[in-house]
Amino acid sequence: MKREIIITSDGSxxxxxxxxxxQYHSKHGAIQxxxxxxxxxxxxxxxxxxxxxxEAISILEIGFGTGLNTLITLLEAGKLNTKVDYTGVxxxxxxxxxxxxxxxxxxLEDHVDLDVFKTLHSVSWEAQHDITxxxxxxxxxxxxxxxxxxxxxxxxxFDAFGSRVQPDLWTEAIFQIMYDALKPSGVLVTYSAKxxxxxxxxxxxxxxxKLPGPPGKREMLRAYKEA
Length: 227
Prior knowledge:
The protein is an alpha/beta fold and 227 residues long. It contains 7 helices and 11 strands.
């Protein structure tokens, strides 16, 4: 499948798949979307509800993709002075040569060394790596349907390709896997706000709320697993 690097509305780049007319991140702003959906309404929301916790925050990303969400979460872990154990699942990894053509380290307001971004993509799969004192990473090369974690994660970043091109990733069966993978009081955030997605989440036990979306989207969803 043909792949192109394009510039989104906030100046940050993403990978565009012409055959699907789909991008890895919002064409209205890749970095803006990542901060709004996954950091503000995911990590920060969970952190401020649990700020007395001494243990690490465990995050599952569906899927690892370009590494943008991972990189920003690494930066935020340092600023929040909290430990994050991060797992990124990806069936079709982005080649490191392609990832390094993306301009995230240049566009992010926080100073970040290109070598850190390179490390996220170059470390081996299926093993835990301490990237910084505050951030560890495990990359898993598998399909989302093959995730078998049980009550392991505090937060899920659900950042799969859209249901228009991959409807099988937005089903009750997938959200049951996500529900099972979360610890009690865990949170799942996604850029999607489709009614069918919300109903699939609710059908497996999630409590779901609509929130204002990132630039270019009116709404997004945040789901909770009750304690």
